Structures are given as structure tokens and as C-alpha cells.
Amino acid sequence: MKLLRILFLLPAALLLMGMGDLGGAPQGAVPETGEDIRAVIVDRQGVRTEVDRFSMGGKTYLEGARGSGRMMVEFHKLAGIEFKEGLGDEVPVILNLRTGEKQELLVNKRAAFYGTTDFGTFMIRARDVRHIAFP
């Protein structure tokens, strides 16, 4: 009986321990992107934070709705992003492209931006951002 219990519990324990990596990046970790993008983020309180390894949920582009479609714009094409007041689940943003053109998108207000600072990792939701600049 004891042997049967061990034979059942051992595989179950190994399976459950192996599931620890299924939740994505560890808490407090910045997702790896393969690119080192620098950004200056200003939140809605006016606090300015300079970050390296900037990403949107681990991606090196901004994704948002444009009309009935979805648009992805790589950060290296942007001079900055202005965030307006949210509308329901979305935040209107104005993309300032390096070419001088402007585009408007709607971004999910819960979208997360990540980066590293000299003193630790940084994460902020789109709903809490006022402006992002790409120097």
C-alpha cells in the first residue's frame, strides 16, 4: 500500500514542480527581446523614468487597433508616443514617427511596458503612461 502511494505521488509531484515555468517571466524580471531599446517614460503623475531593454509585453513594437484592423509599429520607427485619456478598455495614443508623420491607435489599457533602470526593473500599464520618448 505504501509503495503504491509513493508510485502515485512521485510522478504527480514531478509534474507539478515542472509546471513552475509555465507562467512566463519570473516576477520582477524584464522579458528578453534580443534588442536594447532605450526609452524615457513619463507617467500620469509626471514622474520620469529612463529605461533600457524597453518592450511592450516582451515585444519590440507597439500593437494597437486602427479602425477594424490591428497595427504593429516597431519602436525604432518612433520618436515618441503620447497617451490620451482612456476610453473603456482602450487608451488612444498618438504615434510620433521619426519621419515626422503622426498616426493614431487604440492600445489596451492593461498592456504592460517593461524596462530596466540603474536601480531595478520597471513595469507600467498603458493606462498610467502620459508619454514615452525614444532618444
Structure overview:
This protein is mostly beta strands. It has one domain (28-133). 13% of the residues lie in helices and 47% in strands. It is built from 1 helix and 10 strands, in the order αββββββββββ. The chain has one helix spanning 2-18, and strands at 39-43, 48-56, 61-66, 69-74, 78-83, 90-97, 102-108, 112-117, 120-125, 129-133. It has an 8-stranded antiparallel sheet, with no helix packed on it. Strands 3-4 form a two-stranded antiparallel sheet. A hairpin with a 2-residue loop joins strand 3 and strand 4. The longest helix is centred in the first third of the chain and has 17 residues, at 2-18. The termini are far apart. The model is unreliable at 19-26 (pLDDT under 50). Residues 1-24 form the signal peptide. Keywords: Signal.
What are the defining features of this structure?
10 strands; single chain; 13% helix; mainly beta; 135 residues; two-stranded antiparallel sheet
